[in-house]
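Hi, can you check this record?
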Amino acid sequence: MKKALFLVVMMTCVAMFCSCRSAAQKQPAGASQERYFLGTYSAVFPCSLRMMDKAVRETCAKSKLIEVHRSNSITTCTYLYKDVNNIPLKIDLEERKDGTVKIKMKIGSTGDKESCQLILI
C-alpha cells in the first residue's frame, strides 16, 4: 500500500513538473513584465523601437498575415493585421523613456493569450 501511494505521489510530481516546464518554454525570450488583462497581452522588451518595428513586420510577413493599417511616429507604432479568416490582430508599440519597448497585442475582439505568446516567440 505504501509503495502504491509513493508511486502515485511521484507520478503526480512528475506531471506537475512537466506541465510547469512546458508553460515556461512558451514565454518569449527577453520579455519582462508580461501581462494579460481583458484580452490584451503586453510585455516589455529591452530593444529599440526600430528593431521591434522590423521584428513585428518580419514576423507578420512570415505568418502570412495581411497588413491592413500601419502608422509610425517617433515613439509609437500601431499595426492592424488580418489573417485568412479575417480575424484582426492589433499591435501597439511604445518606446519608453528607459530605452525599452512595450508591446500590446490583441487578437480578435476577445483576445487570445497563447496565440499572442506564439507570435512573440
